[in-house]
Amino acid sequence: MSKSPAKARRTASLALAATAATAALTLALVTSASATDGAGAGAGAPRGGRPAAAAPSVSGSPEAAFSRITVFYGAYIDAVYDGDGTRAKQLRAAYLSAPLQRELAKWEETNHADGVLRAQNVPLEWKVVYVDSGMGKTNADVTLTWSGSDTTRLHVQADLKTRKILSITG
After folding, report:
1. Of 35, 53, 117, 128, which residue is most buried, by most CB within 10 angstroms?
2. How far is CA 124 from the centre of its chain?
3. What's the mean pLDDT in 72-87?
4. What is the DSSP-derived secondary structure letter of residue 56?
C-alpha cells in the first residue's frame, strides 16, 4: 500500500517535529546539568536544587518626593565614592533646597565633615525607608552602613510640591 503525497508530507513533518523536540529537550537537559554542577553556571542559575534568588529591582517616579530622596542618596554617594566633587555639587544644587544648602555649608564648616552623609568618609551601603507624608512634606529614614554593623541613621524631609530635600537631621 502506498501513502498519498499529503499523508507522506504529514508523516515527514511529524517526524521532523519529533526530532527537533528531542534535540531541544536534550539540549535543555545538558544545559541544566552543567548549570547546576557549578561548571559554567551563569548568574542566578539554580545550584544544589535550590531556586535562584530573585533579581534585585529598584523603582521610582520623577513626580514622587520619596523617589527623589532615594535617587539623590544613591547618586550622591556614588559621586563622593568616585571622588567626583563636581558631580556631588551638581547633585546638591539639583536636589537640595537653597536654605538646606546654606545650612549644610555652615554644618560642614563647624564639623569638618560632609553634611549630607554626616561623616568624613563614604558609606559602604545605604538604605532609604519611607516613613510618612503629611502637611506638604514626605519623610524618610536613611541608614548609612560604614563597616560591619556600624551605621548612621538620618531623617530626611522633602517638599511634596517642589520635591526638593528640605532637611537632613541625625
Report:
1. 117
2. 15
3. 98
4. P
